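User:
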Amino acid sequence: MRLALILVTAFLAGLLGAGWVRHYALRRRLLDVPNDRSSHTRPTPRGGGLAIALTVLLVIAWTGISGELEWSVVSAILPSLFLVGLIGWLDDHFEIDILWRACTYLVAAGWFVWLMGGIPVMMLGAFTWKTGIWNIPLLVLGLAWLTNLYNFMDGADALAGLQAVLAGIAGAVLFWLQGAESLSFLAAVTAAAAAGFLVWNWPPARIFMGDVGSCFLGFLFGCLAVLGETMSGLPALLWLILLGVFVWDATCTLFLRMLRGETWYAAHRSHAYQRLLQLGWSHGRVALAFLLYNLLILWPLTIWAYYYPDYLLVSVISGMVITVFTWGMVQLQYSRLKGAVA
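Assistant: Predicted structure:
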């Protein structure tokens, strides 16, 4: 009963908070105005992810004060998440230079990883990897990249919010099965708050998440992956499956742009989900396809990897191969259409 009440409260916080931010953004003219690289067609308020960020931050602080989450964990994750959320909120207002944002993500990741001690021994299914001197730098870079890629993938109505709901629910169940109640609670609250925001963000979106939400969530899920491995024995690699569409769409698109000699961090419309929109798919259809892809492909792979841990790497690689192949087919279809039109 207590858990249900808290989750309902988190949902309402996401819902009402996003509504308040929408009012604030309209009053302050904090709008995403469509341009030739946008996927939307009308000026839309941004920054709605602030409701998710504040809800999660308050819950983390509360779990630390109540003793449900060790203070050593709270002191590592709370300042880091606050810093990422703050730079995102400032960027939504003033468009902070990418160098400053990248440095902020690295500092936040460094603080968290250093205090948590990283993952000195990582589970890879049938065997383990003693990460040694690569432990800290790889995790810091990984967290910073996950923060950025989640932001890159926040370019279609409902996509980033839906990913937060799906990953939050799956993470909550997995942590609960592992007996990590505090982490399960945090993941569930994240899903509930994101679901509240999603009411406003469902196509046609009445407010966008903004950097304050997308970067915050990317960093949060990275932290949960690290905490899961170190605190409960839940393999961090499972999150590569749960976040598979975001990870591989963003990563493959980045490499493709770099191979073409393009400025990889500049605004663009070359992600697979953006190509689908350019092919005539509606935002609602893209969101539905994303939902089904997770439920029918990525979630079963995650379940298989959890109950048969010796096949963890097989599951991760399978998810990667299927997702990269799908990404490639979408890009090829777009190229063919573009060539036919030309």
